[in-house]
Specification:
Strand content: 5-15%
Structural class: alpha/beta
Shape: globular
Number of helices: 9
Oligomer: single chain
Bound molecules: NADP nicotinamide-adenine-dinucleotide phosphate
Radius of gyration: 19 Å
Largest sheet: 8 strands, mixed
Distance between the termini: 34 Å
Length: 340
């Protein structure tokens, strides 16, 4: 693929591409063709192989590969980046979709490295991955973070508002009890950790866009809307899971009639794929998309100081030395970075 010919096909890595939103985005990109090769990155090798098999059939393209990546393990993230660098048989890396995510509502869990799991997987694992892969990208290229409207306290999503006490307090909540430590149940605490991790995704999107300004690599955030029936509810209680898996998916058209941000996973997967493949988005960076619409993210998400500190403390937490921190600018193509 030549640069500047209007197409940016190449390799796209999708984390959590084994099911749900990531799978549907992978299917949509594979089906579009346009020179894209999709790498499904998932933590379970067998599940990855099954997803790749289905995608080759359903997406109608053989250009789908699988690689193992467990975002709850910094060791695994580093191994993935090394293994990816060794894959000189793949087309140039043109897109990374940080989609994998989880919600833990049954009590506190920790990653292999001792970080609270929601923050560890949804933010820190992706943070390290982006830092290790961005140097392997061929400009023009795109990074997309899957966030959520639940990061915005002004949207009535029914989820607790995020609370951002700083990266270390989120990584080690036991040492730094925050709101929820006294009185709130595990469900509320877990959901708040989730919405906070989604705020971290937006901070990271904007900070990355600023750091990559001028490089030809863009960074945008995506809100798929509520998609009942995905695996995100897997840690919920049996009744809530039943409603989410069996009842609410049937009501998506009804929610739509009332203008609610509720979608099928297929619709949102297509909208996410567009952020990777849409030619009209070339050079667009530092933006937030609700489905196909560009909108403003929450007011707190534009806090530059929090974003910069999250970036720097995350580097410390994942053990990225100063020599590995992303350079600012230095590229060829100006992006349309939003200045808020
Ligand atoms: N569903 C919604 O209503 C909704 C709304 C707004 C935003 N989102 C966001 O959309 C994204 C996708 O969620 P989904 O709804 O599609 O949920 P999902 O069906 O549970 O998919 C999540 C994906 O993430 C992967 N994953 C989880 N932990 C991982 C780890 N440690 N390492 C690597 N991969 C891991 C899962 O792999 P395994 O299957 O192997 O666990 C799965 O492929 C998430 O970022 C979520 O926050 C969802």
């Amino acid at each position: 693929m030549r640069e500047g010919d209007g197409k940016i096909g190449g390799t796209v890595v999708i984390t959590g591409g084994t099911q749900g939103l990531g799978y549907e985005a992978a299917r949509s990109i594979a089906a579009a063709g346009d020179g894209w090769l999709v790498v499904v990155a998932g933590r379970d090798g067998e599940k990855v192989a099954r997803a790749v098999g289905r995608l080759r059939t359903e997406g109608g393209s053989p250009r789908v590969e699988g690689m193992v990546l467990d975002l709850a393990s910094l060791r695994s993230v580093r191994s993935f980046a090394e293994a990816f660098a060794a894959r000189d048989d793949l087309p140039p890396l043109r897109a990374l979709v940080c989609n994998a995510g989880l919600q833990v509502v049954s009590g506190t869990r920790y990653t292999e490295d001792g970080f609270e799991t929601t923050f560890g997987v949804n933010h820190l694992g992706h943070y390290l991955l982006v830092n290790l892969l961005v140097g392997q990208m061929a400009s023009p290229a795109r990074v997309v973070f899957v966030s959520s409207g639940t990061h915005d306290p002004k949207q009535r999503t029914g989820m607790p508002a995020p609370h951002y006490p700083g990266a270390k307090a989120l990584a080690w909540p036991g040492r730094n009890p925050g709101p929820g430590a006294d009185g709130e149940g595990a469900g509320v605490v877990g959901r708040r950790r989730y919405t906070t991790s989604k705020l971290c995704n937006v901070y990271t999107t904007y900070e990355l866009a600023r750091r990559l300004s001028g490089s030809g690599i863009t960074s945008n955030a995506f809100d798929p809307g509520y998609m009942p029936g995905t695996g995100l509810a897997r840690d919920w209680g049996p009744f809530a899971r039943f409603v989410s898996d069996r009842v609410l998916p049937l009501l998506v058209p009804v929610f739509g009639m009332f203008g609610m941000n509720v979608n099928t996973v297929e619709t949102s997967g297509g909208a996410l794929a567009r952020l990777v493949t849409g030619q009209e988005l070339e050079g667009v960076s530092g933006r937030y998309f609700e489905g196909k619409r560009e909108v403003r993210s929450s007011e707190p998400s534009y806090d530059r100081e929090n974003a910069a500190k999250l970036w720097e403390t995350s580097a410390e937490l994942v053990g990225l030395g100063a020599e590995n921190v992303l350079p600012r600018g230095g590229g060829r193509q100006p992006e349309r970075v939003r200045e808020d």
